[in-house]
């Protein structure tokens, strides 16, 4: 392990320790407050739970509307919710709508894992946070909101990145895991740790206008994530919210559906006899639709939950299982340094002076281009370029002046797609003088002209 990794581990260990100590302090303070208020105002508390009434009067009042729904099992169900310990990983697009419904329903203990801080671009969908929590740890912001919603709930925060070394320690003590994260790397890790500990996982994901939801390793007998996806998706096919965008209420619906499934698991509405593995797919656009597919049972050969598992606790904790390697990463670095220019060079050599015959090509999707773009640029996406199969005639339909001798500078959002486009233009179209702008349009905005809108 490099010294940087060691330092990172140490920082995470201390953050965990810090979270635990803060928790203890808060509990001690709360107990002191309660003792004080009992002494002064209520020497003989009337509303404590008893054998006859297992909930406090306040709890009967608070949860009355859901207790009278027959499916919840009334008071018995409410006690199950109170005793439940649910760990939510990710307080983002899924975690934000999920968490208040868990707290509101009276789930007694909620753990939240997230190392990220609130960014203004999160707020259209991560509505547990608000404009005043920008810059705060999402864990702290979420905890503050949940405490206000329902002070009966015990909220523990883990402001760390979940990884091979801390996952078992964090999961132990919880009876249900909610996967609200956004990358295959973390999904496989959560699955494998949950399988090893025999924990059920409610898992969802979504991007743009759609998403999906399932229950994994139900009661340690249902199929796991690896039964469904033994090999990870190609890194090029995985799109994040940052790249693909996301509609707030569409991902919100999935977070809320996760809360429904969590309640059903806790209340015992699924049993090992009748649980049928499923995958629910939701689309918000153009018409809202919800389809549920029946899935296969556990795979005997599954590396995690099968009869001879290779993904053991030891293999995970000693990092024999390398999730980043397993899931792979995109190879964008397809241009050599001579094919790349900095945003300063771009500004000085191409924008400030008129270089005759030079073509500026922005390869972002059209609706991105419409939000903001530089003057005198053409807009053709990488996909469209690829579909032209290297035909200069096709390219001339969009850029009439283009020839094999043209001078082309390519620009995209972050400087990844522009490299792919540079390769296509040089290798497939045979245009010799093509350069890509490192860091893309956003780096240009950051370093040269911050008055242009960024999204
Ligand atoms: N391994 C992990 N450990 C802790 N938190 C994680 C881990 N993986 C993902 N998360 C958290 O899960 C949340 C996922 O939220 P979401 O998918 O809405 O994306 P985001 O990262 O908040 O936003 P954007 O993709 O727009 O930058 C994030 O808050 C992220 O920090
Ligand atoms: Zn499996």
Overall mean confidence score, pLDDT: 93
Supply the helix-strand structural class: alpha/beta
Biggest sheet: strand arrangement: 3-2-1-4-5-6-7-8
What fraction of residues sit in β-strands? 5-15%
CATH architectural type of the largest domain: 3-Layer(aba) Sandwich
Task: Give a quick set of tags describing it.
455 residues; alpha/beta; Rossmann fold; Oxidized Rhodanese, domain 1; 2 domains; eight-stranded mixed sheet; 18 helices; 13 strands; binds adenosine-5'-triphosphate; binds zinc ion
What does this structure look like?
Strands 3-2-1-4-5-6-7-8 form an eight-stranded mixed beta sheet, sandwiched between helices. Strands 9-13-12-10-11 form a five-stranded parallel beta sheet. The protein has helices at residues 3-41, 57-67, 74-83, 95-105, 138-149, 167-171, 184-197, 225-228, 241-244, 248-267, 313-317, 323-327, 343-351, 366-371, 382-387, 392-398, 417-428, 440-447; strands at residues 85-89, 109-113, 154-158, 176-179, 200-207, 210-216, 278-283, 289-294, 340-341, 358-362, 378-379, 407-411, 433-437. Helix 17 (417-428) links the parallel strand 12 and strand 13. The chain contains 18 helices and 13 strands. It folds into two domains: 84-327, NAD(P)-binding Rossmann-like Domain (Rossmann fold); 337-447, 3-Layer(aba) Sandwich (Oxidized Rhodanese, domain 1), CATH 3.40.250.10. The model is unreliable at 37-46 (pLDDT under 50). With 455 residues, it is an alpha/beta fold. The protein is elongated and about 90 Å long. It binds adenosine-5'-triphosphate and zinc ion. Adenosine-5'-triphosphate is lined by residues 90-93, 113-116, 121-122, 138, 161-162, 181-183, 186, 240-242. GO terms for molecular function: adenylyltransferase activity; ATP binding; metal ion binding; thiosulfate-cyanide sulfurtransferase activity; URM1 activating enzyme activity.
């Amino acid at each position: 392990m490099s010294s940087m990794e060691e330092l990172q581990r140490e920082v995470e260990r201390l953050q965990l320790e810090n979270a635990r100590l803060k928790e203890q302090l808060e509990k001690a303070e709360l107990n002191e407050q309660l003792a004080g208020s009992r002494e002064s105002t209520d020497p003989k508390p009337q509303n404590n739970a008893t054998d006859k009434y297992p909930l406090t009067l306040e709890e009967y009042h608070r949860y009355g509307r859901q207790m009278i729904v027959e499916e919840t099992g009334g008071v018995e169900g409410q006690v199950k919710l109170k005793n439940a310990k649910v760990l939510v990983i990710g307080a983002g697009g899924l975690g934000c709508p999920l968490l208040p419904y868990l707290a509101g329903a009276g789930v007694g203990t909620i753990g939240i894992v997230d190392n990220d801080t609130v960014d203004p671009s999160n707020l259209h969908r991560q509505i547990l946070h608000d404009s005043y929590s920008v810059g705060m740890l999402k864990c702290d912001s979420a905890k503050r909101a949940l405490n206000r919603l329902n002070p009966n709930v015990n909220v523990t925060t883990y402001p760390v990145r979940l990884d091979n070394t801390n996952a078992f320690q964090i999961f132990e003590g919880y009876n249900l895991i909610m996967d609200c994260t956004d990358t295959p790397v973390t999904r496989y890790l959560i699955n494998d740790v949950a399988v090893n500990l025999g924990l059920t996982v409610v898992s969802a994901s979504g991007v743009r206008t759609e998403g999906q939801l399932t229950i994994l390793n139900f009661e340690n007998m249902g199929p796991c994530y690896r039964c469904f996806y033994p090999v990870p998706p190609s890194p090029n096919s995985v799109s994040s919210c940052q790249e693909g965008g996301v509609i707030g209420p569409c991902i919100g619906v999935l977070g809320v559906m996760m809360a429904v499934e969590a309640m059903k698991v806790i209340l015992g509405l699924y049993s090992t006899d009748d649980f049928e593995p499923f995958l629910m797919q939701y689309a918000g656009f153009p018409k809202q639709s919800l389809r549920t597919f029946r899935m296969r049972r556990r795979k005997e050969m599954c590396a995690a939950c099968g009869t001879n598992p290779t993904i053991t606790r030891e293999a995970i904790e000693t990092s024999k299982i390398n999730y980043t390697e397993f899931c792979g990463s995109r190879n964008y670095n397809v241009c050599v340094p001579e094919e790349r220019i900095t945003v300063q060079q771009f500004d000085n050599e191409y924008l400030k002076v008129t270089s005759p015959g030079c073509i500026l090509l922005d390869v972002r999707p059209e609706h991105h281009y419409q939000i903001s773009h530089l003057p005198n640029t053409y807009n053709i996406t990488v996909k469209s370029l690829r579909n032209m199969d290297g035909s200069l005639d096709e390219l001339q339909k969009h850029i009439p002046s283009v020839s094999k001798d043209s001078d082309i500078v390519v620009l995209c959002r972050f400087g990844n797609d522009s490299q792919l486009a540079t390769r296509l233009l040089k290798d497939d179209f045979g245009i010799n003088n093509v350069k890509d702008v490192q860091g893309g349009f956003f780096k240009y905005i950051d370093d040269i002209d911050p008055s242009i809108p960024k999204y």
